[in-house]
Amino acid sequence: MPLTTMILKMGEGLGNTCSIFILTLLFSLPLGLLVALLRMSKSKIISGITRFFISILRGTPLMLQLIAVTYGPYYLFGLTVSRNKLIPVVIAFAINYAAYFAEIYRGGIESIPQGQYEAAKVLGYSKFQTFFRIILPQVIKRIMPSVTNEIVTLVKDTSLAFTVSFQEMFTIGKQIANSQTSFMPFLVAGVFYYIMNAVVDFGMGKVENKLDYYK
What CATH number should be reported for the domain holding residue 19? Predict the structure, then answer.
């Protein structure tokens, strides 16, 4: 197969790869903040349950979670497996990454000196105003390097969708490699992932520079 044709065929799966990436971030970032706040709850029951939830998601392979979310409803309840596998794939990715983002958020929130909360209270700020106007902007600045690292990892992890036969870029490349008995599709996929990561790294660097005024 000519290289140009191979690239075009794999490019067809690039849209699905980008869909996984974008939708995972869209859902996992706010969900991670919610999980972090539950993890820091003063209620030992809520905090304990959340901690257990995080430990399961961080302690088991994402590949296993993809299989469980995609095929679990069928084996457990006899429900039909969705033809649109993007939905279970995004659910599995979003929940998994929310657990990691939650711990990043928690570390950032706990790094803020307690005196800032007390000063905000003296100034008449509510807890909601204190968190979203004073604490969260500083947390975002502090956690940006860690968040960037997770986002870069997400770009590469999208390839795990091949586990459930979702037609993203790596899955198509693997199919071509098997049919052509060639390693070239994997090299092309590697170039695609490198370029995507370079774009992400550049974009996140710009965001970090924009947040320099919080120093």
Answer: 1.10.3720.10
Could you tell me the residue range of the domain that residue 95 belongs to? 3-214
- Amino acid at residue number 57: L
Greatest alpha-carbon pair distance for the chain in Å reads: 70
Give per-residue pLDDT as tens, 136-177.
888 888 898 899 999 999 999 999 998 888 888 888 888 888
The closest of 68, 72, 76 to 96, measured between CA atoms, is 68
162: closest CA among 180, 175, 181, 146? 175
Cβ pair 143, 104 in contact under 8 A: yes
Q: Please, which residues have CB within 8 angstroms of residue 63's CB and are 6 or more apart in sequence?
A: 160, 163
From the list 24, 3, 66, 2, the residue with the least C-alpha distance to 150 is: 24
Residue 25 has pLDDT above 90, yes or no: yes
CA distance 11 to 172: 9
Entry pTM: 0.88
Token pair of 124, please?
């008449």
**Whole-number percent of the chain with pLDDT over 70:** 95
Cα–Cα distance list, 56 to 30, 52, 95, 100 (Å): 20, 6, 11, 11
**Residue-level length of the chain:** 215
When divided into structural domains, the chain yields a total of: 1
pLDDT by residue (tens digit) across 28-57?
A: 999 999 999 999 998 999 999 999 999 999
**Three-class DSSP category at 144:** helix
Give pLDDT, residue 22.
94
